Amino acid sequence: MIEKIKMTTPIVEMDGDEMTRILWKMIKDELILPFVDLKSEYYDLGLVKRDETGDKITIEAAEACKKYGVGVKCATPNGTIRSILDGTVFRAPITIPSIKPVVKNWEKPITIARHAYGDVYKSVELRADEPGVAKLVFDGVSGKHEEVVIHEFKGEGVLQGMHNLDKSIRSFAHSCFKYAIDTKQDLWFSTKDTISKKYDAQFRIIFEEVYEQNYKAEFEKLGLEYFYTLIDDAVARVIRSKGGYIWACKNYDGDVMSDMVSTAFGSLAMMTSVLVSPEGNYEYEAAHGTVTRHYYKYLEGEETSTNPMATIFAWSGALRKRGEKDGIKELMNFGDQLEGACFDTLNAGIVTKDLVNLMEGVDAKAVNSAEFIKAIRANLEKRLG
Question: Which of 117, 208, 256, 257 has the fewest beta carbons closer than 10 A?
Fold first, then answer.
C-alpha cells in the first residue's frame, strides 16, 4: 500500500466540458487520488454551470487562482480567466523519440509564449453597409481630442477596432523574461512594427525597456539571448532552427503559431499549456479543446481512444508547482514520476489511436482511453513502489 502524499495548500480545480470532462474524472480516479491526499477547491466550469451562474463561477475560479497561486483546468473556453489573471500562456509540445517532428531539423521543443490580453479577442467590429467615412477617435480625460480617418468607403465594407494596454504588455514582457530564466531558454519576440508603427511598435519598445532595466544582466550571466525580429523573419528562423527556445507572440499570432508548432511536432493532444501571471500565479491546462466528436461517440456507447496526455501533464505540472511553492519534495517528485510513467507507456508502444501512425521504430498498439490510463497507472506504481 502506497502512503498518500500530503498537501498543505489547495490547488484550484476547474472541471470542463464534453470528452475532456470524462477523461478528467478517469485521470483523477486512476492517477491522482490513489497516490495524493488531494486538497483542491473545486469549480465546475462546464457550460451548464457557467450558464446557470451567468459565468460568475468562472470569475470566482480565476480569483481563487490568485488566492492559492496554482490552478489546474479542464478544457473549456478560458478568455475570462486569461483576462483576470493578465498572464502569459506558455505552450510546449510533449516530445518522445519515436515521434519525429515534421520539420526534420527540430531537435528540441519550441515553447510559444502567447500574450493573453486584447487584440482581436477584445476587438469591436462594425459593418459599413453604405458609403461613408470611418474614423478612429480618442477623447482624453484632459480634453485632448485625436481622430484619424481609417477609410472613406465608396461602398460596403467592414471595420475592426483593437486595443491593448501598456500595463498588460509590460506584464507579458516580465512573464516571458522570468520564464526564460526559470527554464534556461533563449527568448525570441516578434511583431510587425514596420507596418504597425504605433500598436506593434509599442510591444517592441516595452520589451526592450523591460529587458534592459530588469533582465539583461541575468540573461548575460546565464548565457541566454533575447532578440527581436519581424514575425515573417521569425517564422523563417523557426523553420530553420533546431528548437529549444521560447517564441513570444502577440495574442492572435500566438494562437495561430502554437497550433502550427503543435501539429508539426505531432499532435495538439501532446501540447502542454500554462498561464503564468506577473504575480507568480500558475494555471495549467491542455492546449486542445473539448474533443466534441469523441464525446458524441462516447454518449452513443462507442469506445473512444482519446489522448489524455496534455490533461495528465496539466495535473503533473500543477502538483509539481504546488509542491515547489509549499516546499513539499514528495509532491514535486510525484509530478516528475507521473510524467515519467506516461513516457514509459508511450515508449513501450502503448498509445492512443491518434499516435499510431506517427510513431517510428516502435511496434505501436492502439488502446482505448481507459486502457491507456490504466497502463500509465501500472508504470506509475512501479516507479513509486
Answer: 256
Residue 296 pLDDT > 70, yes or no? no
> Residues 103-123: pLDDT tens digits?
999 999 999 999 988 899 899
- How far CA 310 is from CA of 51, 265, 284, 306, 377, in Å, comes to 26, 14, 10, 11, 16
Measured from the Cβ of residue 95, the count of other Cβ atoms closer than 10 Å reads 18
Tell me which residue of 180, 162, 163 sits closest to 276, measured CA to CA.
Answer: 180
C-alpha cell at 145: 481630442
What mean pLDDT do residues 155-171 have?
Answer: 96
Residue 131 DSSP SS3: coil
The burial of 384, by beta-carbon neighbours within 10 Å (0-12 exposed, 13-18 middle, 19 or more buried), is given as middle
Alpha-helical segments (H) within 139-226 = 166-183, 199-210, 216-222
Question: What's the sign of the alpha-carbon dihedral 362, 22, 275, 221?
Answer: negative
Span 333-355, average pLDDT? 96
Give the rounded percent of residues in the chain with a pLDDT score beyond 70.
Answer: 99
As a whole number, the mean pLDDT across the chain is: 94
CA 183, CA 204: separation in Å to the nearest integer?
Answer: 22
Q: What is the DSSP string of 137-149?
A: EEE-TTS-EEEEE
Question: What does the alpha-carbon distance between residue 81 and residue 83 come to, in Å, rounded to a whole number?
Answer: 5
What DSSP state is assigned to residue 163? -
The answer to whether 298 and 304 are in contact (CB under 8 A) is yes
pTM summary value: 0.89
Predicted pLDDT of residue 295? 67
| pLDDT digit string, tens, across residues 237-253 | 999 999 999 999 999 99
Strand ranges (DSSP E) for 2-79?
5-6, 11-15, 36-37, 40-44, 70-73
Instruction: Report residue 292: phi and psi, to 5°.
Output: -60, -45
Other CB atoms within 10 A of residue 304 CB: 19
